[in-house]
Amino acid sequence: MRLPKEIYALGLVSLLMDVASEMVYPLLPLFLVSLGAGTAAVGLVEGVAEATASLFKVVGGRLSDRLGARRPLLLLGYGLPALFRPVLALAQSPWHVLLYRFLDRTGKGLRTAPRDALLAELAPREALGRAYGLHRGMDTLGATLGPLLAALLLPLLGVRGVFWLSALPALLAALLVLLGVREKPAPPKSLPPLRLRRFSPGYRRFLLVSGVFTLALSSNAFLLLRLKELGLSEERVTLVYTLYNLAYALLAYPLGGLGDRVGLRRLVGAGFLVYALVYLGFAWAQAPWQGVGLMLLYALYSAAFEGGSRAYLATLVPEEEKGSAIGLYHTLTGVLLLPASLLFGVLWQALGARAAFGAGAGLSLLALLLFALPQGLEEGRRV
């Protein structure tokens, strides 16, 4: 079964936007320091950016439900980062960068839930895994190409030149939403207050499981630090991370198709298990080749879980509040990423890498156990 062309268009939109974002992201800390910012200011900028994105995800989903249309939020969410690129390229002070990151992440927050809801509405139910897998694969391919383009262009254009040029793929992404994405809007409607008890038991269970699992997650920066600790040079760490992104991009679509065939619930459960195995591996690894193998296994987890969990979530949310439910999920998991990374960092510093990775593996197995409880299995039979 062929997927609707709008799903391919949304995948290309995300690819272009990630090229634009990842051309900029690796250069931002160095750029901030060149403007006189200290490490505390760098942390503040990134903290505000990620908190903004997380909080606006439920806002974007809720607004799209009220409007009865997803596309206006997509245009706003992809257009803001493109239009405000000059704020970054012309920045003369750290607060200019903070303003840009706030506007950029506001756009990301506003578009995430409406985009995922639109994917769920466009894809046939039996092809949800492929639809989300295709989207995550193209998104990750863009995240791989962006830093490579920045590295090639930096000697020719300088940092500000790269910032200016990054506006081009961002503008193309917004233009593609305008010209290539169509939907059938519903009439605007008023919605009751957003309350958890109004959603299905299966959705609430998955929200709980996802919250526990998010506490097991940590920034990928810790995986890269562990590779360095195992003896890889900085250049090889960068290469391994590039290979991870490429493997993720290539595996996402076929694994999404596998989820459609064997069941999305099984794919999500396998994701919890593989994540636990990867973290246990990093806890006990002693050689560089083991770290490389674990990163490739981590790519398998990412490709299966990132798309599979979103596709499975789409089967649990009500039609009339699809954007709100998806936005609430993204906001919860986004907010919990901060304490998750803080917990991981504290455990590593106090007790060592083995304790930190072991705790992450344990929380992942706890999430798997909660996911497999009988009530969850009953809900899963309808998927």
TrEMBL record:
The keyword Transmembrane helix belongs to this UniProt entry's keyword annotation: yes
Bilayer-crossing regions: 7-25, 31-52, 73-91, 162-181, 202-225, 237-255, 267-285, 325-348, 354-373
Domain of life: Bacteria
Annotated ranges, domain Major facilitator superfamily (MFS) profile: 6-379
Keyword vocabulary terms for this entry: Membrane, Transmembrane, Transmembrane helix
Annotated GO MF terms: transmembrane transporter activity
Descriptive protein name: MFS transporter
